[in-house]
Amino acid sequence: MMATAPAPEVLLDHRGNPRATVEMTLTYEQARLGTAFHEAGHAVLAMAYGMHVLTSEVIAWSRGADGWGVTGNTAFRTHDTNPWHFAAQCAAGELAYVQYLMTRGLWTPERALACAADHDREQAIDVLADFGYRLSHGRVPEGGKSWGMVQGMARRKVGYLWREIHTVAHAMNEQDILTGDEIADLTGLVNAPLLTGGAA
Question: In this structure, are strands 145-146 and 135-136 parallel, antiparallel, or unpaired?
């Protein structure tokens, strides 16, 4: 665990706004591993969908008398990625966290709600809009998909790749950060070649 909070930009969403913070009724070890599952969900689905994964990490720090904080980050580059695959990768983090809670007997409705990663959903909506795709929260837009439909796509892929997500999450929890090549070695997935000009 780091002695102090990470750099402020680590705690911002893609729009530059502070990411929402939530209190979870989990121990430090449980929350840290849950965050590792969240990031592993992003990393494994990104790689499975042909994106180049740079790193995936869990970040934990002491907040002094206020306890501790934990977050994560997965960095990747895309090239000719199917927009709906990009959106499913965004949804995979919270779904992997919820699946972790369920497999460990830690699931409660409140904890599942606290897994919601609105910043991931909003990033998917914004990125797809930039490419002319319609993704909405709470409804199906004409010619597009709802976030619930994207979560359904991601849920199937998370289930199919659960062994790989589990392996990566535990390795990340032990090492803090994994490179994409390390994730590929652990899972047998292929980390696509890094092409210049892609978006994160």
Answer: parallel
Task: Determine what percent of the chain falls in helix, strand and coil, rounding each to the nearest 5.
Answer: 50, 15, 30
Beta carbons of 126 and 15 less than 8 angstroms apart: yes
- Calculate ∠ Cα 83-87-92, nearest 5°: 145
**DSSP structure class, residue 129:** H
Rounded to a whole number of angstroms, the CA Rg of the chain reads 16
Cα–Cα distance, 70 to 64 (Å, whole number): 13
Amino acid at 158: V
| Helix axis angle, 83-103 to 28-48, nearest 10° | 150
Q: What are residue 47's phi and psi, to 5 degrees?
A: -65, -45
Residue 55 φ/ψ, nearest 5 degrees: -150, 160
Handedness of CA 22, 28, 34, 36 (dihedral sign): positive
Say what the pTM is: 0.93
**pLDDT surpassing 70 at residue 167:** yes
Q: State residue 197's pLDDT score.
A: 53
Instruction: Name the range with the highest mean pLDDT among 8-17, 19-28, 104-113.
Output: 104-113
